[in-house]
Design brief:
Layout: H1 2-21, E1 52-53, E2 60-61, E3 70-75, E4 91-96, E5 102-108, H2 126-130, E6 136-139, H3 144-151, E7 156-159, E8 167-169, E9 179-181, H4 183-188, H5 212-216, E10 218-219, E11 222-226, E12 233-238, E13 243-248, E14 251-252, E15 262-263, E16 265-271, E17 273-279, E18 285-289, E19 293-301, E20 304-312, E21 320-323, E22 336-342, E23 347-349
Parallel strand pairs: 3-6, 4-22, 6-7, 16-22
Antiparallel strand pairs: 1-2, 3-5, 4-5, 8-9, 10-20, 11-12, 11-23, 12-13, 13-14, 13-15, 16-19, 17-18, 19-20, 20-21
């Protein structure tokens, strides 16, 4: 019995000894908490900057220049061809003036060639065409009543007859087909009210969008216009050049380098062609177009054509293009020729 009590007595003795010594028993070990690591959120990627586009062509550019559009009245008679600088225009409007003659308004913004011509006089339809662009209109004169209309438009007039700077006569053509001009000098005369860049005149396909004629139009090889008894231009699709090539009658319409004039888009606008109230030589009627309202339109792009409607809200608004279902027509980025077809007298066949 004593042997069994010995371990118990020894344990009790140790406990009493520790109590008498005044030392506390060692506390149980504590666990060190593991620090919580908060991961830094990854920075969101910088949004890619929106690309810049030339407003009149829809072509993407890294060198967008803030300058006004310069519209120039260009002669289109046989004596005026080949013209200089038409190949560099962003938009060319073809109109029918007195005596069934074709005359052009060439609009320059993304490209500024050194020389333009031959330059001729203004007509009553010009203000409705150039007012949505603002900027500068260069020409070689006109009837006082028409000059008054131009002065009331949104464009700054520069006239050879008024001795504006930048006009000159070349020696290699006879008058009146020899007035040429410098876009650089025209631009230098822009006043503060006419220096703003033009707004977009047509809608263009960007990104994943396709030009409407390519997506939904019909395939076509040649566009044949009858604008008047004296003006019958045509356009033929060239798949290698990816452009429409222009002819006057049966002959290619060449530029100053003897290359056919080309367009990425050809737009047909059919509008009333009415007497303006002005008279030309021998009391001939000077016509104009009624461009406020709406009418038939067609757009040719990429070897295809789609028919639709044009609308213009007022004199200062650009022409808008819609499909027959009412959707906007998107053009391909590039230059555009607009053929103004006299309603009831002119035609487009393809």
């Amino acid at each position: 019995m004593r042997l069994r009590k010995a371990p118990l007595c020894a344990a009790l003795a140790l406990t009493l000894f520790a109590a008498c010594s005044g030392e506390d028993p060692a506390p149980p070990p504590t666990e060190t908490p593991t620090p919580t690591v908060t991961e830094e959120p990854e920075p969101e990627p910088e949004p890619e900057p929106e690309p810049d586009y030339w407003p009149l062509t829809g072509v993407e550019t890294e060198d967008l220049i803030d300058r006004p559009a310069i519209s120039v009245k260009i002669e289109n008679s046989a004596a005026a061809r080949p013209q200089t600088g038409l190949d560099a225009a962003d938009i060319v409007w073809e109109t029918i003036i007195d005596f069934d003659v074709s005359r052009l308004i060439a609009v320059y913004h993304s490209q500024m060639p050194e020389e333009i011509g031959p330059i001729r006089s203004v007509r009553p339809m010009d203000p409705d065409i150039i007012s949505p662009l603002g900027g500068i209109l260069a020409f070689s004169g006109g009837q006082q009543g028409v000059l008054n209309l131009v002065a009331e438009s949104n464009a700054q007039p520069l006239s050879h007859d008024a001795h504006s700077d930048g006009f000159y006569r070349v020696k290699w053509r006879r008058a009146p087909h020899n007035v040429y001009g410098s876009l650089e000098k025209f631009l230098a005369q822009g006043d503060n009210e006419h220096l703003a860049a033009p707004s977009e005149q047509f809608e263009f396909a960007h990104g994943d969008d396709e030009p409407t004629a390519v997506a939904d139009g019909a395939s076509v090889e040649t566009l044949t216009f009858k604008l008047s008894s004296a003006s019958k231009p045509s356009w033929t699709w060239d798949a290698d050049e990816k452009s429409w090539l222009r002819s006057e009658g049966q002959s290619p319409h060449l530029d100053q380098d003897e290359n056919p004039l080309a367009a990425v888009n050809v737009v047909s606008i059919t509008a009333p062609h009415v007497a303006s109230g002005f008279k030309a030589q021998n009391n001939a009627v000077v016509p104009t177009y009624e461009l406020t309202g709406e009418g038939a339109a067609a757009v040719a792009t990429g070897g295809n054509i789609i028919e639709g409607t044009w609308k213009k809200k007022d004199d200062d608004a650009p022409i808008e293009l819609f499909t027959k279902d009412g959707d906007p027509i998107l053009l391909a980025p590039g230059n555009t020729w607009v053929e103004l077809v006299p309603a009831g007298k002119g035609s487009l066949s393809f």
